[in-house]
Design goal:
about 280 residues, alpha+beta, 5-stranded mixed sheet, 4-stranded antiparallel sheet, 11 helices, globular
Amino acid sequence: MGYIVTSDAGRERYSWRDTVRNLNDTYESIFPEEAAAAAAAQSEKVADDSKDASDKLAAELADLKESGGDDAADFARAERFKHVNLDLKACVFIRMKWEATQKISPSELVRRMLTNTRDTGEPVSRHTLRIVPVEKVSYAAVEDVVKAAKPLIDEAFPADCEKGKEKTFAVVFNSRANSSLRRSELVPALAALVPEPHKVELGKPDIVVLVEACKGVATVALVKDYYGLLKYNQRLLSMNEEERQAERARCNPSGGTDDTKDTKKEVEEKEEKEEKKEEAK
Protein backbone atom coordinates (compact mmCIF):
# COMPACT_ATOMS: atom_id res chain seq x y z
CA MET A 1 0.00 0.00 0.00
CA GLY A 2 1.06 3.53 -0.61
CA TYR A 3 0.91 6.30 -3.21
CA ILE A 4 1.76 6.99 -6.83
CA VAL A 5 3.03 10.56 -6.96
CA THR A 6 3.41 12.50 -10.20
CA SER A 7 5.63 15.56 -10.36
CA ASP A 8 7.44 18.02 -12.57
CA ALA A 9 9.97 16.21 -14.74
CA GLY A 10 13.42 16.26 -13.18
CA ARG A 11 12.03 17.27 -9.78
CA GLU A 12 10.97 13.84 -8.57
CA ARG A 13 13.35 13.89 -5.59
CA TYR A 14 11.98 17.17 -4.25
CA SER A 15 8.42 15.99 -4.83
CA TRP A 16 8.65 12.73 -2.91
CA ARG A 17 10.50 14.40 -0.03
CA ASP A 18 7.76 17.03 0.29
CA THR A 19 5.04 14.39 0.02
CA VAL A 20 6.58 12.13 2.66
CA ARG A 21 6.91 15.08 5.03
CA ASN A 22 3.32 16.20 4.40
CA LEU A 23 1.93 12.68 4.84
CA ASN A 24 3.83 12.29 8.10
CA ASP A 25 2.58 15.64 9.39
CA THR A 26 -1.01 14.71 8.54
CA TYR A 27 -0.65 11.24 10.06
CA GLU A 28 0.75 12.61 13.32
CA SER A 29 -1.98 15.26 13.51
CA ILE A 30 -4.51 12.40 13.43
CA PHE A 31 -2.52 10.17 15.79
CA PRO A 32 -0.58 12.57 18.05
CA GLU A 33 0.20 9.72 20.44
CA GLU A 34 2.65 8.29 17.88
CA ALA A 35 4.58 11.55 17.68
CA ALA A 36 4.67 11.65 21.48
CA ALA A 37 5.87 8.05 21.65
CA ALA A 38 8.69 8.78 19.20
CA ALA A 39 9.74 11.81 21.22
CA ALA A 40 9.73 9.69 24.40
CA ALA A 41 11.88 7.08 22.70
CA GLN A 42 14.31 9.80 21.72
CA SER A 43 14.64 11.05 25.30
CA GLU A 44 15.41 7.52 26.48
CA LYS A 45 18.29 7.37 24.03
CA VAL A 46 20.05 10.35 25.60
CA ALA A 47 23.06 9.15 27.51
CA ASP A 48 22.83 9.42 31.28
CA ASP A 49 25.13 12.08 32.72
CA SER A 50 26.42 9.61 35.27
CA LYS A 51 27.99 7.40 32.58
CA ASP A 52 31.65 7.72 31.99
CA ALA A 53 33.06 8.72 28.59
CA SER A 54 33.58 5.15 27.34
CA ASP A 55 30.00 4.16 28.14
CA LYS A 56 28.66 7.23 26.39
CA LEU A 57 30.76 6.53 23.31
CA ALA A 58 29.61 2.91 23.18
CA ALA A 59 25.97 3.98 23.49
CA GLU A 60 26.33 6.55 20.72
CA LEU A 61 28.00 4.04 18.41
CA ALA A 62 25.20 1.54 19.06
CA ASP A 63 22.60 4.21 18.27
CA LEU A 64 24.34 5.17 15.04
CA LYS A 65 24.53 1.55 13.95
CA GLU A 66 20.87 0.93 14.75
CA SER A 67 19.29 4.06 13.26
CA GLY A 68 21.78 5.34 10.72
CA GLY A 69 22.40 8.45 12.76
CA ASP A 70 18.79 9.64 12.95
CA ASP A 71 17.10 10.31 16.24
CA ALA A 72 14.14 8.15 17.22
CA ALA A 73 11.46 10.59 16.07
CA ASP A 74 13.03 11.14 12.65
CA PHE A 75 13.67 7.42 12.28
CA ALA A 76 10.01 6.61 12.97
CA ARG A 77 8.90 9.15 10.36
CA ALA A 78 11.38 7.83 7.81
CA GLU A 79 10.14 4.27 8.30
CA ARG A 80 6.44 5.16 8.03
CA PHE A 81 6.66 6.31 4.39
CA LYS A 82 9.44 5.26 2.03
CA HIS A 83 10.28 6.25 -1.53
CA VAL A 84 10.42 3.51 -4.18
CA ASN A 85 11.95 4.26 -7.59
CA LEU A 86 9.66 3.25 -10.48
CA ASP A 87 12.21 4.12 -13.16
CA LEU A 88 9.64 6.44 -14.74
CA LYS A 89 9.98 10.09 -15.59
CA ALA A 90 7.97 12.42 -13.33
CA CYS A 91 6.50 9.53 -11.32
CA VAL A 92 7.50 7.83 -8.05
CA PHE A 93 5.95 5.46 -5.53
CA ILE A 94 5.77 6.04 -1.78
CA ARG A 95 5.23 2.91 0.30
CA MET A 96 3.19 3.19 3.50
CA LYS A 97 4.26 1.00 6.40
CA TRP A 98 1.83 -1.86 7.04
CA GLU A 99 1.35 -0.96 10.72
CA ALA A 100 0.28 2.54 9.70
CA THR A 101 -2.25 1.20 7.19
CA GLN A 102 -3.94 -0.71 10.02
CA LYS A 103 -4.79 2.61 11.66
CA ILE A 104 -5.86 4.52 8.56
CA SER A 105 -6.10 3.58 4.90
CA PRO A 106 -3.87 5.32 2.33
CA SER A 107 -7.01 6.68 0.65
CA GLU A 108 -8.43 8.24 3.81
CA LEU A 109 -5.08 9.71 4.88
CA VAL A 110 -4.44 11.47 1.58
CA ARG A 111 -8.08 12.58 1.37
CA ARG A 112 -7.70 14.37 4.70
CA MET A 113 -4.40 15.89 3.64
CA LEU A 114 -5.75 17.18 0.32
CA THR A 115 -8.97 18.42 1.93
CA ASN A 116 -6.80 20.51 4.22
CA THR A 117 -4.86 21.78 1.20
CA ARG A 118 -8.12 22.81 -0.48
CA ASP A 119 -9.52 24.49 2.63
CA THR A 120 -6.41 26.19 4.00
CA GLY A 121 -3.76 26.05 1.26
CA GLU A 122 -1.59 23.75 3.40
CA PRO A 123 0.32 21.50 3.06
CA VAL A 124 1.78 22.18 -0.36
CA SER A 125 4.68 21.07 -2.52
CA ARG A 126 6.26 23.13 -5.24
CA HIS A 127 6.78 20.20 -7.61
CA THR A 128 4.07 17.65 -6.71
CA LEU A 129 1.06 17.18 -8.98
CA ARG A 130 -1.24 14.21 -8.26
CA ILE A 131 -1.09 11.91 -5.23
CA VAL A 132 -2.92 8.67 -6.05
CA PRO A 133 -3.56 6.20 -3.21
CA VAL A 134 -2.82 2.50 -3.71
CA GLU A 135 -4.73 -0.13 -1.70
CA LYS A 136 -4.29 -3.20 -3.90
CA VAL A 137 -1.69 -4.19 -6.49
CA SER A 138 -1.99 -6.78 -9.25
CA TYR A 139 -0.69 -7.73 -12.66
CA ALA A 140 -2.00 -5.48 -15.43
CA ALA A 141 -4.61 -7.95 -16.68
CA VAL A 142 -8.38 -7.59 -16.44
CA GLU A 143 -8.96 -10.77 -14.44
CA ASP A 144 -6.19 -9.89 -11.96
CA VAL A 145 -7.45 -6.33 -11.44
CA VAL A 146 -11.00 -7.60 -10.89
CA LYS A 147 -9.75 -10.13 -8.34
CA ALA A 148 -7.79 -7.44 -6.48
CA ALA A 149 -10.67 -4.96 -6.51
CA LYS A 150 -13.42 -7.36 -5.42
CA PRO A 151 -12.77 -7.35 -1.63
CA LEU A 152 -12.58 -3.54 -1.62
CA ILE A 153 -15.83 -3.24 -3.56
CA ASP A 154 -17.61 -5.88 -1.46
CA GLU A 155 -16.77 -3.95 1.70
CA ALA A 156 -17.68 -0.51 0.34
CA PHE A 157 -20.86 -1.56 -1.49
CA PRO A 158 -22.77 -4.15 0.58
CA ALA A 159 -25.64 -5.76 -1.29
CA ASP A 160 -27.84 -5.74 1.83
CA CYS A 161 -27.41 -2.05 2.70
CA GLU A 162 -30.31 -0.24 4.33
CA LYS A 163 -32.67 1.84 2.22
CA GLY A 164 -31.40 5.38 1.90
CA LYS A 165 -27.76 4.33 2.36
CA GLU A 166 -27.17 3.42 -1.26
CA LYS A 167 -24.00 4.82 -2.80
CA THR A 168 -23.14 6.09 -6.24
CA PHE A 169 -19.92 5.16 -7.99
CA ALA A 170 -17.78 5.58 -11.08
CA VAL A 171 -14.79 3.67 -12.44
CA VAL A 172 -11.77 5.74 -13.48
CA PHE A 173 -8.87 4.17 -15.36
CA ASN A 174 -5.52 5.83 -16.07
CA SER A 175 -2.54 4.27 -17.80
CA ARG A 176 1.14 5.06 -18.29
CA ALA A 177 3.73 2.94 -20.08
CA ASN A 178 1.13 0.18 -20.49
CA SER A 179 -0.81 -1.16 -23.46
CA SER A 180 -2.14 -4.46 -22.12
CA LEU A 181 -5.16 -3.16 -20.19
CA ARG A 182 -8.10 -1.99 -22.28
CA ARG A 183 -10.55 0.49 -20.87
CA SER A 184 -13.45 -1.03 -22.81
CA GLU A 185 -12.89 -4.40 -21.08
CA LEU A 186 -11.80 -3.29 -17.62
CA VAL A 187 -14.43 -0.65 -16.79
CA PRO A 188 -17.50 -2.89 -17.42
CA ALA A 189 -15.86 -5.78 -15.53
CA LEU A 190 -15.31 -3.64 -12.45
CA ALA A 191 -18.73 -1.99 -12.66
CA ALA A 192 -20.31 -5.45 -12.71
CA LEU A 193 -18.85 -6.15 -9.26
CA VAL A 194 -20.98 -3.42 -7.67
CA PRO A 195 -24.36 -4.87 -6.66
CA GLU A 196 -27.77 -3.23 -6.63
CA PRO A 197 -29.05 -0.94 -5.20
CA HIS A 198 -25.86 1.10 -5.74
CA LYS A 199 -25.90 3.17 -8.93
CA VAL A 200 -23.46 4.57 -11.47
CA GLU A 201 -22.93 8.34 -11.26
CA LEU A 202 -20.31 9.80 -13.56
CA GLY A 203 -20.73 13.42 -12.51
CA LYS A 204 -20.18 13.44 -8.75
CA PRO A 205 -20.01 9.89 -7.38
CA ASP A 206 -19.74 9.04 -3.70
CA ILE A 207 -16.87 6.65 -4.42
CA VAL A 208 -14.54 6.28 -7.39
CA VAL A 209 -12.98 2.90 -8.16
CA LEU A 210 -9.59 4.21 -9.25
CA VAL A 211 -7.30 2.00 -11.31
CA GLU A 212 -3.82 3.07 -12.39
CA ALA A 213 -1.81 0.93 -14.82
CA CYS A 214 1.95 1.43 -14.74
CA LYS A 215 4.07 -0.80 -16.98
CA GLY A 216 3.05 -4.38 -16.13
CA VAL A 217 1.40 -3.53 -12.81
CA ALA A 218 -2.05 -2.18 -11.92
CA THR A 219 -3.09 -0.52 -8.68
CA VAL A 220 -6.58 -0.18 -7.22
CA ALA A 221 -8.05 2.16 -4.63
CA LEU A 222 -11.51 3.34 -3.64
CA VAL A 223 -11.47 7.10 -3.16
CA LYS A 224 -13.98 9.69 -1.98
CA ASP A 225 -14.50 13.24 -3.26
CA TYR A 226 -12.38 12.49 -6.34
CA TYR A 227 -13.69 15.37 -8.43
CA GLY A 228 -14.20 17.70 -5.48
CA LEU A 229 -10.48 17.30 -4.77
CA LEU A 230 -9.64 17.93 -8.43
CA LYS A 231 -8.64 14.35 -9.16
CA TYR A 232 -6.29 14.47 -6.15
CA ASN A 233 -4.13 17.13 -7.77
CA GLN A 234 -2.37 18.88 -4.90
CA ARG A 235 -0.97 21.71 -7.00
CA LEU A 236 -4.38 22.75 -8.31
CA LEU A 237 -5.92 22.46 -4.85
CA SER A 238 -3.39 24.93 -3.44
CA MET A 239 -4.33 27.57 -6.05
CA ASN A 240 -7.19 30.01 -6.31
CA GLU A 241 -9.51 29.79 -9.33
CA GLU A 242 -7.59 32.33 -11.38
CA GLU A 243 -4.32 30.48 -10.79
CA ARG A 244 -5.98 27.18 -11.70
CA GLN A 245 -7.18 28.53 -15.02
CA ALA A 246 -3.67 29.81 -15.77
CA GLU A 247 -2.17 26.46 -14.81
CA ARG A 248 -4.61 24.56 -17.02
CA ALA A 249 -3.87 26.90 -19.91
CA ARG A 250 -0.13 26.33 -19.42
CA CYS A 251 -0.53 22.55 -19.35
CA ASN A 252 -3.06 22.51 -22.19
CA PRO A 253 -2.16 25.39 -24.54
CA SER A 254 -4.45 24.09 -27.29
CA GLY A 255 -7.47 24.71 -25.05
CA GLY A 256 -10.11 22.23 -23.96
CA THR A 257 -12.62 21.68 -21.21
CA ASP A 258 -12.19 21.68 -17.44
CA ASP A 259 -10.40 18.45 -16.60
CA THR A 260 -11.77 18.24 -13.10
CA LYS A 261 -15.10 16.78 -14.15
CA ASP A 262 -15.98 13.89 -16.45
CA THR A 263 -19.53 14.22 -17.68
CA LYS A 264 -21.34 11.18 -18.97
CA LYS A 265 -20.94 12.42 -22.54
CA GLU A 266 -17.18 12.94 -22.12
CA VAL A 267 -16.72 9.46 -20.65
CA GLU A 268 -18.68 7.90 -23.50
CA GLU A 269 -16.59 9.80 -26.05
CA LYS A 270 -13.38 8.62 -24.39
CA GLU A 271 -14.53 5.00 -24.45
CA GLU A 272 -15.62 5.30 -28.08
CA LYS A 273 -12.22 6.66 -29.10
CA GLU A 274 -10.49 3.89 -27.14
CA GLU A 275 -12.56 1.22 -28.86
CA LYS A 276 -11.77 2.65 -32.31
CA LYS A 277 -8.07 2.58 -31.51
CA GLU A 278 -8.30 -1.05 -30.42
CA GLU A 279 -10.23 -2.02 -33.57
CA ALA A 280 -7.57 -0.38 -35.69
CA LYS A 281 -4.79 -2.50 -34.12
